[in-house]
C-alpha cells in the first residue's frame, strides 16, 4: 500500500494504513509495552467497519473546527477492553462538547509514539471525526506536561475522563502537572484505566502549538519498515536519522520505580561495530546514549532500539539479554530545542546532569 | 439568645445563633474531631461581617430555587485554611452553576452533625445565599451514600470539588459509592482537603428527600445545652431522647482503620446507675449500645456520649479513660427506618449481625 501523503488535500487513513501507522508509532515511542499491537488490531477493525478517517492539516481547519486530544490513561494491558466500550467514548465526547460549548470536529493524538499514536484513528472513525495530522510530542514522553502546547504556552482549558463503569469527570487544573496528578488519582479510583480527552484547540490556537505531520510521518516510517528489503536502513533514512551502533545486548539493569521502567542497557557492537560499547539510559523511553563517556544523543532527541534484522521497535519492557539490535537516533521537533522545550523535556528534566547537545548526523 | 424557630417565615441564622448551632451540631454527630469549634469560629466571623442568613423551609422554595449541598471533604484539622479561601468557594459555585445551567439560590448541609452542619451557614452568608432548614442525614454518617436523598431514590446529577490551589473538577458518577471513591481520590491528590458541592435539587426534588428542620433543631438543642441549669436533661428533653446511663469510662479500645476510628468504649454506671455496665461500638460515630448482651439502641438511631456535667458532646476521638459521661440516645428520622434506609445505614450496613429494633423511650 502507498503511504499516506502528509499535506495533500483529501488525505485519509484507511484500515490498510493501520499496520504501517502502528509500526511507525512503535518506532516513535517505546515505553508502552505491547499496547501498540492491541491498538492496531482494534483500530483496523473499526476502520473496516466504519470506513477511513480524513487526515487534515492545521491549515485545513476552519473557524468552526474544535480539536481535542484523546488518549488512553493507565495500565496499557487493560486497554483493549476500554476500546470496545462505545458508551465510554460517547460519554467522554458528550461531556467534552458540553464543557467546550460546541461540537468537537477533530481528534489529535497526545503523542504519536506508542498506542496513543494509533488508537485515535479508531476513535475518530467511530465518532465520524477528522484526525489532525499532528500530535503533542512528535514522539512519546512519560509526562502529560511534556507537550508542545505547553512549550508554546497554550493552557489546557479542561480535561475529561470517562471509565468503563460509566463515571465521567471534568477536570480544570491550574497547570498540566496538577492535571496529571488528578487524572492519575481518578484513573486509579476507576480501576486503573480511563479514556481521556483534553486540550481543546481551535485552528488558531493549534497553529504553532502542535507538532505537525506526525501521523503521516509514522505511516511513512512504518511503510518503509514493512516493505523495504533493508528495513533498518530504510527506517533511518525515512527519519533522517542514524544507526549509532549495531550489536548485542550484553547487560540489562532495569527496575520499575514509581510506575516507570528505569535502568540502563549495555550493547556491545558486532560486525563492523565490533569492539565498541554503548550504554542507554532509560525511563520508560530511551533517553541517553553514551559511548566512551561521551553523549551521542539525548532527550529530547529520539533514541529507539530496533531489531537488527526486521527494524521493528523493541519496547523498553521487551529488551532482553542477547538480543541483536540497532540503536537508532534522530532529531526531535525544533520546538523541543527551544529554552522552554528543554526546560520541560531536556536531559535535566529527567535528572541527568548533562548539557543538551542537539543530535546531528554523524559521518561514521 | 432565643432559638431560631423552625418553620416561621422570615427565620434566619445570625452570628449570635452560631454557638448554639455548633453545640447542637456536635450532639448530632461526633465523628469529626475538633472541627466543629473551628467551623463555629469561622462562621461567626463571616456572619458578623456579612450579616445573617435566611433560613428557609422546602415549602418556601420557589420554582427558580436551586439547592446544593456544600461540604468540606478530607482531613478536618486542615479545614480552617480552606474556609478562608474566597477563590476556592467562588470557583466551586461558578462550576456548579455552569454544570447546573442556572444559579444556585440556597445551600444545604450534607449532614447536620459535626462541622459540616455548621460551615454551610458561613458559606451561605459569604455567597449571599439562603440556607435550607434541612440536611441529608438528620445526624452524621461516615459515608456519602448514607443520605436521605439516596434513600428516596433521588440521584446526584453531579458533584464539584475545588481545592486551595485553584483546581476544580466536575464529577458525574453512576452512584454515590463511586462518587465517594472519586471524590476521595481527588481530595488526596489535592493535598487531603477540598470543598465540595453536590446533589443539585429543586423544591420539587427536595420535597420528601431531605431531612427537614434539622438546622433549627440543632440550634434549639444547642441553646438548651448552653442555657439550661440541667443541660443533660434539657438536651435529652429537646431531642425527645433518653439518658441510657450516667457513669465513667472504664475501658477504651479504639484504633484507626481505613481512615475510620473504630473500637468500643465501656462505661460503668455511677450514682443511681451504679452496678450497670454498657458497651458502645463505634465507627467514627457511636453506633450500638449494649448492656448485659442486649442492644439498647443502634444505628440508624442516634447515640451520643455527652459530658455528665455540661451536656457537651464528646467526639469519639476525644473519649478518654475516666471521663464522667452520659449516654444519650434518640430516634432517627423516620426515613432511616424504611427498608431502603436500613439497607443503607442499618446495623448490618456497618457489619453488625443484629436485627434493628427502633429506639423508644424507656421507662427507667
TrEMBL record, chains A, B:
**Record-annotated membrane-spanning stretches:** none
Q: Which InterPro entries match?
A: S-Me-THD-like_C, S-Me-THD_C_sf, S-Me-THD_N, S-Me-THD_N_sf
Which parts of the sequence belong to the S-Me-THD-like C-terminal domain?
177-358
Put simply, this protein is called DUF917 domain-containing protein
* UniProt-listed Pfam families: S-Me-THD_C (PF20906), S-Me-THD_N (PF06032)
Its domain of life reads: Bacteria
Q: Which residues form the S-Me-THD N-terminal domain?
A: 17-172
Amino acid at each position: 500500500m502507498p503511504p499516506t501523503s502528509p499535506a495533500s488535500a483529501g488525505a485519509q487513513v484507511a484500515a490498510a494504513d493501520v499496520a504501517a501507522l502502528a509500526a511507525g508509532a512503535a518506532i516513535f515511542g517505546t515505553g508502552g509495552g505491547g499496547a501498540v499491537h492491541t491498538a492496531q488490531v482494534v483500530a483496523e477493525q473499526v476502520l473496516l467497519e466504519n470506513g477511513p478517517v480524513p487526515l487534515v492539516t492545521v491549515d485545513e481547519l476552519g473557524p468552526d473546527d474544535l480539536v481535542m486530544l484523546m488518549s488512553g490513561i493507565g495500565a496499557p494491558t487493560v486497554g483493549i477492553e476500554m476500546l470496545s466500550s462505545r458508551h465510554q467514548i460517547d460519554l467522554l465526547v458528550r461531556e467534552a462538547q458540553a464543557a467546550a460549548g460546541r461540537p468537537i470536529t477533530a481528534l489529535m493524538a497526545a503523542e504519536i509514539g506508542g498506542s496513543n499514536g494509533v488508537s485515535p484513528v479508531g476513535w475518530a472513525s467511530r465518532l465520524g471525526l477528522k484526525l489532525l495530522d499532528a500530535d503533542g510530542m512528535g514522539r512519546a514522553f512519560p509526562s502529560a506536561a511534556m507537550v508542545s502546547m505547553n512549550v508554546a504556552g497554550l493552557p489546557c482549558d479542561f480535561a475529561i475522563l470517562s471509565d468503563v463503569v460509566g463515571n465521567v469527570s471534568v477536570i480544570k487544573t491550574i497547570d498540566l502537572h496538577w492535571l496529571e496528578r488528578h487524572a492519575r488519582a481518578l484513573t486509579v479510583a476507576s480501576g486503573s484505566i480511563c479514556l481521556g480527552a483534553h486540550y481543546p484547540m481551535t485552528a488558531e490556537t493549534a497553529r504553532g502549538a502542535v507538532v505537525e505531520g506526525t501521523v503521516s510521518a509514522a505511516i511513512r516510517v512504518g511503510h518503509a519498515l514493512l516493505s523495504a528489503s533493508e528495513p533498518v536502513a530504510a527506517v533511518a533514512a525515512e527519519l533522517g536519522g542514524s544507526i549509532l551502533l549495531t550489536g548485542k545486548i550484553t547487560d540489562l539493569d532495569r527496575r520499575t520505580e514509581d510506575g516507570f521502567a528505569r535502568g540502563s542497557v549495555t550493547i556491545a557492537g558486532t560486525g563492523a561495530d565490533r569492539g565498541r560499547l554503548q550504554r542507554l539510559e532509560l525511563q520508560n523511553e530511551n533517553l541517553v546514549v553514551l559511548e566512551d563517556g561521551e553523549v551521542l544523543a539525548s532527550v529530547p532527541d529520539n533514541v529507539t532500539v530496533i531489531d537488527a534484522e526486521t527494524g521493528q521497535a523493541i519496547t523498553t519492557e521487551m529488551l532482553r539479554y542477547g538480543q541483536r539490535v540497532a540503536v537508532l537516533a534522530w532529531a526531535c521537533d525544533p520546538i523541543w530545542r527551544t529554552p522552554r522545550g528543554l526546560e520541560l523535556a531536556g536531559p535535566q528534566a529527567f535528572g541527568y546532569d548533562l548539557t543538551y547537545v542537539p543530535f546531528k548526523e554523524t559521518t561514521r
